[in-house]
Amino acid sequence: MDALVSPLGMVSDYSPSEAQSVDSHGEAKDYFVERDGVRFAGTHLIVDLWGATNLDDPAHIDSVLREAAIETGATILHGHFHHFSPNGGVSGVLVLAESHVSIHTWPERAYAALDIFVCGICNPYKAVSILKKGFEPERVQLAEHKRGLIG
């Protein structure tokens, strides 16, 4: 039971920024986007990296994901990465003003599963080249889902 109530150190001290929630006229910003006549909240990429490297180093993973998030145009609010053992996998997340980037790695299988979900004008596809450079996968699988699809 103690594990359920102990502090995880994952709560950010950041408060919402007016720059993120109000436009230059003082109006509430609408982060939904419209592309090709379709209106939606944001783009969620599911990324599988096969034959990847550097999957057991939390500091390296943190660095690569931060660079990838910035490349999308996102604002990083908080990050947390957990290393399961000296040679085990890593699970982690970057909380973004625009949503999140998460990763789960299996170094013994040279495999990583990532979610990149960004709203507004951010472009998650810009993160892919950073992931390729940082993890050197032999193969990348991508799937896209538009979140908050309207009509």
Task: Give a description of the structure.
The protein has helices spanning 2-5, 18-21, 58-72, 126-135; strands at residues 33-35, 38-40, 42-50, 76-83, 90-96, 99-106, 111-119, 139-147. Mean pLDDT is 85; it is low at 1-19. The chain has 151 residues and is an alpha+beta fold. Helices cover 22% and strands 37% of the residues. Strands 4-5-6-7-3-8 form a 6-stranded antiparallel sheet, covered by helices on one side. Strands 1-2 form a two-stranded antiparallel ribbon. It starts with a helix and ends with a strand. A hairpin with a 2-residue loop joins strand 1 and strand 2. The chain contains 4 helices and 8 strands, in the order H-H-E-E-E-H-E-E-E-E-H-E.
Kindly list the characteristics that best describe this protein.
single chain; 151 residues; alpha+beta; 6-stranded antiparallel beta sheet; two-stranded antiparallel ribbon; 22% helix; 37% strand; elongated
Indicate the topology:
Blueprint: H1 2-5, H2 18-21, E1 33-35, E2 38-40, E3 42-50, H3 58-72, E4 76-83, E5 90-96, E6 99-106, E7 111-119, H4 126-135, E8 139-147
Pfam family, one: AdoMet_dc
Protein name: S-adenosylmethionine decarboxylase proenzyme
Keywords: Autocatalytic cleavage, Decarboxylase, Lyase, Polyamine biosynthesis, Pyruvate, S-adenosyl-L-methionine, Schiff base, Spermidine biosynthesis, Zymogen
